[in-house]
Amino acid sequence: MAKKSRKMQEALEKVDTTKAYAVEDAVALAKDTSIAKFDATLEVAYHLNVDPKKADQQIRGAIVLPNGTGKDQKVLVFAKGDKAKEAEDAGADYVGESDLADKIQGGWFDFDVVVATPDMMAQVGKLGRVLGPKGLMPNPKTGTVTMDVTKAVEEVKAGRVTYRVDRNGNIHAPIGKVSFDDGKLVENFKAIHDVLEKAKPSAAKGIYMQNVTVTTTFGPGIHVDPASL
Fold it and tell me: What is the pLDDT of residues 209-229, one digit of tens each?
């Protein structure tokens, strides 16, 4: 087992691992135990009692956080004609067609989100093997395959977060930076929690949210009491 650093040991000593903290206390503690030398990201993690192998229990979507994520996201848009102009006017960082596809095939990935108009998906679909593993493939469920490219780009720039349950029933999502005010982080946390609660599949039985934690980049995980959300 890798030896923990002195800073990590000190951070762990502040956390009661047997306790589920109220959301306000958990966020404050996460910030206090951040050991990164930069403005670390706070991330929430949920373990849900669902079976992602079943189509009716797959949870996936997107949400624009009330206070953003604190990260400047680079948006690439596959569009042509008027839609390409709309994307540029909305603030997209890269807009194009086959030229961008060729760059990506060549190993270029200087972007965070990919948006595409439906008529471009035949071309974008050929990039599935390179975009898919990185979680960058456009999808209608996350609002990244759309004719309303203006809305898609503006939402990403405003702090849209995508979420997707993995094969083990976990969902991870950022809620902001350590430099954020506690209240803004709590508001973002509650916004994601509300969305996930509403996404509960009717087929899911028993306790839906089995574990909720918040952590910072390199920091310890802190259990959160779902009832406080």
Answer: 999 999 999 999 999 999 998
